[in-house]
Amino acid sequence: MQELAAWAEGTALAAALRRSGHLYMVVNATHILGIALLLGAIVPLDLRLVGIVRGGALRVLAPFLSRAAGAGLAIALATGPVLWSVSARDYLANAAFRWKIALIGLGLAVVALQHAGKGWQQAVETGVPGPDARILAALSLAIWLSVLLAGRWIGFL
């Protein structure tokens, strides 16, 4: 992994980001936009699936919010490695960064389970999420909020 980190730090893009505060700022802001879109969509969707928030037809909300969360995730996943490349070896040494990466993997697994399961389809079709969809939504909510906290924690270690 250290070899990959060293390679990433040596790329032209990483060097450009280190040289240009403006470029780094734009990539960082784009990463934050992706996170905002992800969490801004997944939190209300998960709260609705869990049953904490009522109202809003899941038939309409669920597909829209799921796609919005996916778009935010795609943006964050595209910009994250670019930001990582600036100081990749330092990030690998940071426990919060390692937690963030592990939690992202766990979050992606939960998303895959949710969308592959019958509970998601039932929730979209009937507006009534089953127990499995509710449990996965609660896990999703906890995991993605933990990713956010781990990401913020990186700067404090």
Tell me what you see in this structure.
- The protein is an all-alpha fold and 157 residues long.
- Helices cover 84% and strands 0% of the residues.
- It has helices spanning 2-9, 12-19, 21-50, 58-84, 88-92, 95-116, 118-126, 131-153.
- Helix 3 (21-50) runs antiparallel to helix 8 (131-153).
- The longest helix is centred in the N-terminal third of the chain and has 30 residues, at 21-50.
- The chain is elongated and about 55 Å long.
- The model has no long low-confidence stretch (mean pLDDT 95).
Describe the protein's topology.
Layout: H1 2-9, H2 12-19, H3 21-50, H4 58-84, H5 88-92, H6 95-116, H7 118-126, H8 131-153
Summarize the structure.
The chain is an all-alpha fold.
The radius of gyration is 18 Å
What is the 3D shape?
elongated
Order of helices and strands: HHHHHHHH
Contiguous helical run count:
8
By secondary-structure content and strand pairing, the structural class works out as mainly alpha
C-alpha end-to-end distance:
20 Å
How many beta strands in the DSSP annotation?
A: 0
Helix proportion range: over 70%
Strand content: under 5%
Round the mean pLDDT to the nearest integer and report it: 95
User: Which parts are unreliable, with pLDDT below 50 for 5 consecutive residues or more?
Assistant: none
Q: How would a crystallographer describe the biggest sheet?
A: none
